[in-house]
Structures
1.
Amino acid sequence: MEPIPVFVPTELYLALAVVLFVMGALGVVIRRSAILIFMSIELMLNAGNLAIVAFARHWGQVGGQVLVFFVMTVAAAEVAVGLALIVTIFRSRRSINVDELHQMEG
Amino acid sequence: MIQMPTLESLNFGVAFPALSLVIGAVLLLVVDVFLPERRKGLVPWLALLGVLVSLAVSMINYNEVGEAFSGMFIADPFTSLVNIIVLISAALSILLAMDYLRRTEMEHRSDYYLLLLFTTSGMLFMGAANDLIVVFVALELLSIPLYVLSGFRRPNLKSEEAALKYFLLGAFASGFLVFGIAMIYGATGTTNLPGVWAGTAAIVESASPSLYLLLLGVGLIVVSLGFKVAAVPFHMWTPDVYEGAPTPVTAFMSVGTKAGSFAALLRILVVGLPTLILTGATSAAWANTLAILAALTMILGNFVALRQMNIKRMLAYSSIAHAGYILMAVAAAGDPAVGNQGVQAALIYLLTYAFTNLGAFAIVIALERNDGTGGQLDDFRGLASQRPVLALLMTFFMLSLTGIPLTAGFIGKWYVFLSAINAGLVLLAVIGAVTSVVAAFYYIRIIVRMYLQEGDANIGTSRLSYTLGAAILVAGLGTLIFGVLPFLVADLTQGVQIVRTIAQIAGGG
Amino acid sequence: MDLMDLNEWAFIGVFLVIAALLPIVPIAMGRLLGPRKPNPVKTDTYECGIETVGDTWIQFKIQYYIFALVFLAFDVEAVFLFPWAVAYGGLGFFAFVEILIFLALLSLALIYVWRKGALKWT
């Protein structure tokens, strides 16, 4: 299929997606609170979604948007499990700072 | 524009091994909540039954080739062999869990087996994925139950910590996977792996800028699956998670996750991107990267394992090292002339490693005390005089992990080294051989403790339970049989080749 | 640009004017016509509901949390239902069966949550 003409070029979307992805990845490395790390991961996932949607428009396809639906729902499932884990660890430790997680060393 | 799938294009029959396990898991979910409390003991047996049914179907349909779900799912001998590896591991790990959960007074928490079945189904779909969407969904289906399982021993702090670490790094890795998929989709306009293959060929030929997207995409996917298989430098979660998670979960994680993730990695790279060959190179662009990762993984895994004093941490580093050997086979598969041989070698290694490592972990579970202690290397002192059979089997498993002839581990290493040398990765093979010698030190250290040092191996179980005994027996037999009868392995894998399209089979490859 | 196009814009203009007038006129009328006799009760800031007691940073019951998680999981699944509903006319019976299977799986999850007692408010 011929790429359809678009107003905002795909490259700009891609650039935005890359910036968001790098911000997310840096956030994971820099942040110390489990919740904030988790939010950064969500940012990375959504950067991926943005790129996929932009490419789907570029190729004039619906398939990419369907892929985004899958990423979104799976991310929601991940959120549910992740927050449950974070709450569990907060209840037994009163802290979600990942620097304080050092029961095991070596 | 919307094409409705028909029953023929869905072709459920081909996907039956994986579907039967999913259906089994869903049925068990319902059965579990309606069973009265005193009947909960049935759940593990039903889970085992589900796994065995799926295993039987995989074996019966071993050579069947076909596509299901409009080409998103593919069944071929490769899929079947991955299924068999994963399902045997799942069955053994259910047996291990039955013993472990009873001793740690978690027997009533039967959701353990549900989570185990779901993660196993994720692994089955990983092996059969013919589309990047399926890879992503299967990877998450594999991972999410495992996050919960690692934290299953709550309120134990170590277990909770393991779960959180595994979760954060696992989710981080899936972020990379999504972005990698986005890049490949952007370059080729499809997520279907044969489509990616066709797109790649065109891009490489015309040297269009999409090539950079493709390279970035492959890199991100390798990073993300590198996390899952614990390849250096993405391994830092492994020792903590392996130590903190309940031991049967660790055992399953070390084998099943590796099998599923390597299967998906092989499919993506060998089906989708084998022609990503830059000008002037003879093998695919990802092969060199993987060769470097393999070298780092083997070196770091084996050397750091030398100074571990806790058996679970030692086996964690050993499992990192073994991921390195498998990566060597994957790198070899990047050479078009070797291709399939590398794929077969990786699967053989996974098969032999599954039996050996589950056996070693089964013995660790037998020695572990109910409060979680008993996992230090010094706890193995004098085991030979107190429990000669256990000590003998542990010796056997350690020798197999080292790769001594007449054990399954030797056969795995043999094929992997062979494929690496055929692909011209001689230096990598030499590194592998040298690090195997290093590995012998820490495996033999345990044997020395058991046989030559005095001590009171104060072991967790006074008598082995039947389930634990059965698991050790099966693992030991597997390690022995594949070790002394290597032609079995050759028979099993000779038909294994990664199938790109059905037409490829019809046209004779 | 023909008359029809102008009419469309005029319509939006009229709409904006009416929208602005609707709140301004009653307020102005109240100011102009109403008598003004202030007393402390009348000048007090009005807020609906009862007055807050204590700090808002208290621990919530964990049950809210479980409900939120269950809601989250089911809520997002609706994303698969919308495209199905929009395209329903062209899909036919097969898609109907597929979505039924999907919903059945979701209700199994709900049954699981219910049987585990997570929906019971204690």
Note: The mean pLDDT of chain C is 82.
2.
Amino acid sequence: MNILTACKAIQEARGPAILIATMGAMVAFDKLDAGQPRLNSVPLMGGSASLGMGLALAHPDRTVIVVDGDASLLMQLGALVTVAGKSPRNFHHFLINNGTQFSGLSNLSLPGRQIDYCALAAAAGYPITHRIQDEENLTMRIRDILSSDGPSFIELTIEPDPPIFGADSPQQDWSDHQFTRMGDEARQLAVLLANGGAA
Amino acid sequence: MLKNKFNIPASAYISALQRNSVDYVVTVPDWVQLAFHCQLEAGVEGIELVQCCNEDQAVCVAAGLRIGGKNPVLIVQNQGIYGCVNSIRALGLDAQQPLVFMVGQFGREFANFGKSPSLSRRNTVRYLEPVLDALDVRHWRLEEESDLPKIDQAFSYAQRTSRPAALIVGAPTGWL
């Protein structure tokens, strides 16, 4: 499964859940036109799980879906412990495990090899872990996962997209949107939650 | 037991948080604020404690709580601020979240109490205010009980401007 098909399955099952994404998953959800209630941890690798936990604590009546990246999680591996310490039942933590960083851009390797993320999550105190390796299984199981109590950790085995950067296609400038969108989304989400919208 | 005018009682800090409608304390514990932590861990009506593994996570959890309509305060120490500069940049400044920090001046010489931290021999003390200034994070020193109204000022400022604010706890909180 690739990141777009995985995020499509999540988006289709998401319903009114709050969606927190980062890095490649953010780009995929943009392509899928995923809207509010939504917040992206950008540019801030490693922040999505803790951001999601804050929202899950503030709104225990709402499902929170975090779609993390493997390189991002490795930056804040202790976040697994922070989340498990409070164990919000409305919290579901998906991990895009594509084994690369700057995935789909330059596909650099990660520190570490054969990391067992489900074992890490379980050792940190997540009571529920799943490893899902194909789109069919994800589609079949995701609604059950999201309707069950968490916190759950769902590792998705993802085939990295081919890199797009090279001598003939170097990096282009970023738009300001990349640096302002988290604030814009935070304000929209705060208003929506305050008004009890899209519950 | 150390007890002098520089040791603002933990109970006075608790009262200040309650006065400012704080409902969550998000923290990585701080040596300077140990008495404060102990009272919070023992349980304070209306305040839930969230312990984090590092200050990056604390900033993110607090931001999530803020976006969700809660009113958290972060309790960390000066070293923690140095460790989470990028998260403050991303969520406090870029995303304009009004995060209020209580920052213990870990390592401050007791002889420096009542003087400017810029006179400290220790980098961890001396660099705190310049780092906050570089980030354009407004800060207030809490040195004696008469400084407690600065807590109200910091919450008001953060809310009014949608910017982070830092309250610098200069000496060990008192065990009262």
Note: The helical segments of chain A are 3-14, 23-31, 48-58, 70-75, 79-86, 117-124, 135-147, 177-194.
